[in-house]
Specification:
Elements: H1 4-31, H2 36-63, H3 72-81
């Protein structure tokens, strides 16, 4: 198994790149209507970025010594409890 410290850092780098691409897609959608194919790509980009986000949270929390994380709900709940995430108005 990879070093947990390296694992969450690598996941963070991947998440940053995916988030930047997603932001570019959202900006394009604000500028003009997207084709059906572009819409599908944007949705898939969101799903991929979300998957990376919760896995990043899981890896980071495990690096911090919290090992009882089963899925995205656990990772998100624990991230809020550990002040990694805060809620904000939509």
């Amino acid at each position: 198994m990879a070093d947990p410290d390296v694992r969450w850092r690598q996941r963070f780098d991947n998440f940053e790149r995916a988030l930047q691409l997603l932001e570019r897609g959202v900006e394009l959608a604000r500028q003009r209507p997207l084709s059906e194919l572009e819409q599908q790509g944007l949705i898939q980009g969101f799903e991929f970025t979300h998957e990376l986000a919760w896995n990043l949270l899981k890896d980071y929390l495990q690096h911090q010594g919290i090992a009882s994380i089963i899925g995205s709900r656990d990772a998100t709940r624990l991230a809020f409890q550990n002040d990694l995430l805060t809620s904000s108005p939509a």
